[in-house]
Amino acid sequence: MFRLFSNPFAAAVVSFLAAVILTVLVRKFAVSRGYVAAPKSDRWHKRPTAMLGGVSIYLTTLLMFFIFVETTMASMVILAGSSFLFLVGILDDFLQIKPYQKLIGQLIGVSIVVGFGLSLPWTESDILNILITAFWLIGITNAINLLDNMDGLAAGISAIAAFVLALGFAASGQPNEVVLVSVFVGALLGFLVFNFNPASIFMGDGGSMFVGFFLASTVLLNDVAGRSRSVISILAVPALILFVPIFDTTFVTILRKLWGRKASQGGRDHTSHRLVALGLSERAAVLMLYGFALLAGLLSLLVRELETVQSLALIGLFTVVLTLIGVYLAKVKVYKEQEADLALENKAVFGFLVNLSHKRRVFEVILDAFLISLAYYGAYFMIFGPFENSENWALFVKSLPILIVIKLFTFLAVGVYRGIWRYTSLSDFLTFSKGVVISSVFGALAILLIYRFQGFSRAVFILDALLLILALGLSRVAFRLFRKILPNPTNGEQRKILIYGAGDGGEMILRELKNNPDWNLKPIGFVDDDPLKKDKVIHGLKVFGGNGSLKKICLENDVEEILLSFRNVEPHRLTEVKDICASADVSLKRALIKIEPFDFAS
Fold this sequence. Notes:
By secondary structure, this protein is an alpha/beta fold. The chain has three domains: 8-343, no CATH class; 374-484, no CATH class; 491-601, Rossmann fold (3-Layer(aba) Sandwich), CATH 3.40.50.720. It has 24 helices and nine strands. Helix 5 packs across helix 11 (243-258), helix 14 (308-330) packs antiparallel against helix 17 and helix 19 packs antiparallel against helix 20. The longest helix has 26 residues, at 8-33.
């Protein structure tokens, strides 16, 4: 059948323009008929917002499909199943149907797709593939539905996932599928013009159901899954393309279950909400998740070209980073204290997990075992290149278990597992280095005794030690890096403070303030009477000169409080500082560092 264009870029542009026009019309219709979403306690928006935006996405995709896309049985089946899910979602928007009723609708959509032979070729069993495909379609559909919790999030993430999917189709030589997805991307971007913060229209369940099911079922057309060089690609590529909704749904489901809340109920505890709770703006939080989605998508394109072991190493590294991010975000308080206490009383299992979380040594050991493997593999790869089909692979496989055992026991002996991650310092790096060097020596001796070191490279063991020190250090300072990247959460207006004394005591006070953002104290700098310290920088904060300029410094920087970082202050100088603080309406306190807790004594 003749189609107007076969150029995917042209199709996307026309689809984008059509979506813009249709979204304006749908928004006007929704407002005039009263189809608006009112603000609720478990929702993020703060003003009534037009609904039914999914209608414009669906109609644009449908119209552009028949204009640009060469119809095939597979594409028609996907459009039919997605259209049915759109109707189910619209029904939910108007009538608020039960969750089990939506599930029945989703199962019907799955039956339409699977019934015509589309499935994920993940196993040798057709029955098992059908079950996996059903789980995939329903899971992604609901994941996009749950992800629709902040302006522009679901539409933007879906557009990125679809764009990456189009690149995969292009790499696999599937031009018609590229046009199909390009039309869909254009529809999403046209809607996103009005859905990005501050949104003037929401897609609703009709939109999220359609978008989620269309994305999930279109993945089934990707030949990269069936003709990949690596079995890992068969499993990982679809998951990486839709990484953000999968991560968010898994993350929220686990935490809600732990806190005794229903996984299906609404809430402000998604990944995006936790980023905002850390101090990011709504736009910044959404853009950060866009970045994660794009990174995961690009990783999916890379994985499909790699060998199995290389893919595993890359995916494993990505998983470690995500796990650390998940642990960090899980600590952000999003529930009221009384809800947390109630859940803790009612959930004995959760209480056990909370206690276990304070002893994260099991996690550290597992992480280090992976890092040991990754560093050893990286050393071989950097020296020999791809070595899976060489004799070096056999040497790597038979020596790796020995090195893991020796290095973990050495780490335990030298004290690697005694530190607390949030307080990782230079002395800890020295401990890591000592553990790695000693374990590397013992490992080399073990290889020498067992295998006579025949065929092994000394350069591999040296490079392995360097990579492992780097990996251990980065993993331990991960939370401190997150604190640098993300702002600290606050409970209200922060008081600007000046730390008097730019010595060791002042630096220690600054670290305590940064580690305890709930105190709502914002250090703006140091002041010191030593002229040699003037204009120096400590952890990013300037040292002001204190001689005769303290009052001016306080007034120019709106300082509300001064903390004395040392005990021994000359009486006449203390009197001068008190008088200056009184005249500048600034409170003066002496900060006393105790083992626990940190306290302020005036």
